[in-house]
Fold these 4 entries.
Entry 1:
Amino acid sequence: EKQNISIQEATDKIIKWVDELKEKIKTDKTFPLGSLGDFSLDSVGNLIFIPSLDTDISPESYGLESFTFPPSSMHEKEEQSTDVVEEEKKIQPTPKIKKRKSIVLYVLLIIILLPIIGLGIYAALYTNDFIQIKKDISYEITLWLQQKENKYVESKIDTTSSFEVFVEDSYDYTSAVSEIDMNEEVTIEETEEFDEIEIKALPVSEIGNTYIVLGSFKSQENAQVFLMQKQEEHPNIKDLGQGKTSGLWLIGLGPYEETEAQQLLNEKKVKGWIFRK
């Protein structure tokens, strides 16, 4: 029967019929279309129309002779699978690299904290031992720094023959020296072209703690040789011992007051440097 209905009503009826067709195909795998035939699924999964053979009505007149359509269920499955993939992309687990980095950071933190905690526990349980160990470590560090400083000082002080030339006179004096009183004047007869040179032993103060160093040496033997060479020129020369910082053997004059030592260096032209002991 023909009915006068609106386009919207016709559209709604078609949508309803399509939904019924989908449900019918899902459950029964076929959908009868009156005496014309049945909609069914083939082996591939396509929706096809199978005409009825016992009717005089030809399916060609309805355009169903070549009808083939993939079932909507397949589209639904594809849509569902697409949705699942999108959801999986959204809910992706944290990358393994980030997890590994966080694990490594935790391990490093534990490694750093464990010795500190252990040291604190040891200090609390064995306080005296901890204090002694701390002192020993401080001493070792100080000793190591002093050795570094000594090497630096040795690099600054030239102890080679060129240094000895610096502290000695530039002339070769060959002299005959009689017995010398440490505090008396000494006269040296020169065999060179020079006239007699009077050398007075430099006065020594018994109060000061300042010395004039004439030479410094790595070995005590070289220091003693230098001392013997300079005894004629400086009767009151002496071995000042080994420097605490540099570790070098020092040969010089003194002790003096600081101003007195400076005066001897400037006025008497003594070749050396100030040393406070």
Entry 2:
Amino acid sequence: MKQSLKNLSLGIQHVLAMYAGAVVVPLIVGSAIGLSGSQLTYLVAIDIFMCGIATFLQVWKNRFFGIGLPVVLGCTFTAVGPMIAIGNEYGVSAVYGAIIASGIIVILISTIFGKLVRFFPPVVTGSVVTTIGVTLIPVAMNNMAGGQGSPEFGSVENVALAFGVLFVIILLNRFFTGFIRAISILIGIILGTVVAGFMGMVNLQPVSDASWFNIGQPFYFGTPTFELAPILTMTIVAIVSMVESTGVYFALSDICNKKINEKDLARGYRSEGLAYLLGGIFNAFPYTAFSQNVGLVQMSGI
């Protein structure tokens, strides 16, 4: 029971690490293509659900898919611009037709793409991992200021709260060991949320108004349509995401002291292709490895 509670806490920590990024994408895309409030709510809910399914496909290693590393999958920011452009020109049905088609293509090319591992020496993968960390800095600074579109963006309260949470996490990592150190980010988030509540920055009304259960519906936005230009666009997005994921795979491989080969990479790419395919069927998003969770694994060891 005690071990189960520890595992639950560590799992919640990973969810919270990816939550902001997973929610922002559907909000941006849904608003840009003119979805209604109820449609936007569904989009966010099904996206979170599919993030869990996609992650499960990746960590469940078997003969056909799953890299077997602590990889968390979430909707890729690379797809935001293309999805908005496709949605505005061809309609939302073409968006999901393109995602489904690109997912099938990723599954088909996964073995070939996995063989490219021989062209990724340590100096290349190390550069990719460094780039991942550097590109996350603007995202972190934006969130610390209050998040894109916040009316209080850059306020003293937002910045002070953000640095307070950061200070707590650093202290826990510096002076504690074991389980407390492993969940330092979770503790920082909880304390920060409590303080934010006292500051009037937390609104729980939408949570109380929401229903307890909601079942995902395939093709919620209608039957997908397949247009050549959108399919090519989303396939390019998928290939870019595969390159990004390669860096994440190698980073986690080093952290976990588990060497990966071309077959492992192929299974990892195949999982992403399946996640694309399911994302299109359930009208969610293309999914890729979330780099922010790599930092969490490095800090917590889990």
Entry 3:
Amino acid sequence: MLEVPDGHEQAIQIGVWYPSEGLPSERANAAGQRLAINSQVMGGVHPLVIISPGNGAGIEAHADTAFALAEAGYIVASIAHTGDTVGQKTSRPSKWMIDRPRHVRRTIDYLLEAWPERSKIAATRIGMFGFSAGGFTALVTAGGHPNLRLASQFCNRSKGELACRLAMTRDFSSKMVASRANDPWVSDPRVRAVVVASPGLGFSFDKEALKDVQVPVQLWAASDDRNAPIASNALIVQKNLPHPPEVHVVEGVGHFIFSRPCNPKREPQRKRSCVSPTNFTQEEFHQVFNNKIMQFFDLSLPQ
């Protein structure tokens, strides 16, 4: 666990996976992974991938994807978004929506400028993976400028949408909040490719909002997603991106299929994301999922 300075805000917590020749310890994290904690990064320079998990999720929400990328030679940093992470859901949506992309930039700044292993990072080969609210974060980081008026209008007529039921757009009717949100959203041109899985708040992105997203995008969606329904989120993003993304729709599954596989008996706090449909093995799917992500980054972040 590392701490990233965030100006006058509380420091950002991140976890970093990386290729190493060190010997792994026994079960080093909640995901049950055997990791070579505090070992040096393997020699050479490595591409970097930033992970932004979903609303209220923590560093290990996509630990299997981080591990797979590290085994393939990537350095991976997963962010616990301050105010919107496990055990610390203290920020209103109008704050964390704006804070999250800044957290990404601060994390990249830290890893390239202050991390003791910074010389091992290929600074021109940086990608990002985002799930749900993290998908929103990835799109903003890549140059997206969400249309908050459009989002509020959508929620006024689509009250069944989870993001609307949770009043994620309500604050933007406040003049003070709207004024803050009109400041430039924090994008980062160092991010050269993004993977977006079940993006939340996709309905806030029209063509104008996404016109500056000029990097390659791999877009994942679940056909039976009730948290970020495909029609009002992923398909809107797909339609409005300026360049066609690489699209994967997983049939017959829900929102949390893209989170790391887990056992509800071992991790009762994650039981809602541990459920897989009949005749569907999340572990087997994640082997395919992680391989597709690696292939995408390999092609999009060439040496």
Entry 4:
Amino acid sequence: MKQNKCTTTMPLDKTRIWIDFNELCALAKADEAPIYLFSQTDITNDSDGNDITIYDGMEVSVFDDDYDACDLPDALLADGIIVRNFLDQYPNVKWLIRLVKHKKNYKSGDEYVYWMSDL
């Protein structure tokens, strides 16, 4: 079974998988890293439309469509690790994503999420 995710016409720095940054569902106990709902199935598609098989521990780059103050496209970006859903309140979700901190200090000031224009 496959979950079709969003492709985009927004410019991206590389191929990424879409997530809804409104679906924050938990914070990691160890370091309070944000955890988001990711997928209901083992196969999803990336921003170029390619099928991607998801597995525990997989490193992924993600995006969500967003716009800047001038209403111009400016995708939200993040990187993370796929983890099997451990949250009882979301029984229909198979996979979560635990975001990792940036390797660079982006101007957005957020440790986990940044914008395409930050690059």
